[in-house]
């Protein structure tokens, strides 16, 4: 990604994640992108103007009124001389002020005065992120064309777990690239269909068969494809993840519903089938809750095979996506099973991973894949599911030309 000669105005608002903005500056500077930093008053509690000045090699701005000094650049000029404004981290407070059009400090004044693309990287406590006020503010900003990266899910400084962590600096860098260089959106105009998560197959109205899939890898792939400009339809089984930004999500429970939603989403240029679809469902799910009768034998569950969504879409004739990618979760003989799956299911690539106990892959945040294509098997190093997703999205973009 080339950012040489580009100018980013980086607005840092006050949150514990502000320290990560230093790494972001380093990544931008490595790509010869000029950075001017603006700190809110609260941000100064977390990072110092001096360290930012050293890293950006530019004066750091903190106060509105020092800028109005005749001898210095005015705020209009400061906000317009950049190619993009990036707010990282963006607290709930600055997002609310942006949504409300409030300009009560230098950062928000610049954001109101600019006519350049704006990217926000939210970071806050999970309750604040999920609060109806923040949800409404994000919708307002999205409707105005403000781009968003993250937040990620995970453990937070406040000892809670959930969405709210600042996106990692490489992901913010990629989002800045996408904002500044249309060439960094190689999937613009393409439609991607992605399946994710487990399926739930009902036994009776309260019980179901399920598996341990979290949906993390599928959701990350949907987000990575969207970041490269694709229109993405994500057909997801029940997961506890937030919807990826900029993706149309179709929520389903069963394999049959997932297949119907996939068919309805066609045509697509690429299909990525990352869902852990249940192989079987209960042949006749009970309409009423099965009762436990003392002394009686437990109910016997007769199973029937589910449709194979990947194989069905790969055989969809004229509606078959040009590139069909399947997944193979195996516990042994990865390459052999993946190659066999490639042939049997009629897909173009298989992403194989080892889900043996102890690898921590199923339901975890990291993945170690073997990418199997007609050209052979390629082992990828262990990495976060987000990084694997970005790698796969780049490969998909290259394959679609
Ligand atoms: O046969 P197996 O379940 O190992 O194949 C895994 C691949 O097939 C994954 O890409 C999964 O999403 C897909 N699949 C499917 N429908 C099924 C079973 C698996 O789409 N019923």
Keywords:
single chain; alpha/beta; Rossmann fold; 2 domains; eight-stranded mixed sheet; 14 helices; binds cytidine-5'-monophosphate
CATH superfamily of the largest domain: CoaB-like
Number of helices: 14
Considering DSSP H and I runs of 4 or more, what fraction of the residues is helical?
A: 25-40%
* Residue fraction in strands: 15-25%
Number of domains: 2
Bound molecules: cytidine-5'-monophosphate
At the third CATH level, what is the topology name of the largest domain? Answer: Rossmann fold
Largest beta sheet: strand ordering: 12-11-8-13-16-17-19-20
Cα radius of gyration in angstroms: 24 Å
Structural class designation: alpha/beta
| CATH class call of the largest domain | Alpha Beta
Global mean pLDDT: 92
Distance between the termini: 17 Å
3D structure, described in words:
- A hairpin with a 2-residue loop joins strand 19 (369-373) and strand 20.
- The protein is globular.
- The mean pLDDT is 92.
- The strands form 6 sheets. The protein has an 8-stranded mixed sheet, sandwiched between helices. The protein has a 5-stranded parallel sheet with strand order 2-1-3-4-5, with helices on both faces.
- It is α/β, with parallel strands linked by helices and 401 residues long.
- It folds into 2 domains: 7-184, Rossmann fold, CATH 3.40.50; 191-400, CoaB-like (Rossmann fold, 3-Layer(aba) Sandwich).
- It contains 14 helices and 21 strands.
- The longest helix is centred in the C-terminal third of the chain and has 16 residues, at 385-400.
- It binds cytidine-5'-monophosphate.
- Cytidine-5'-monophosphate binds next to helix 12 and strand 16.
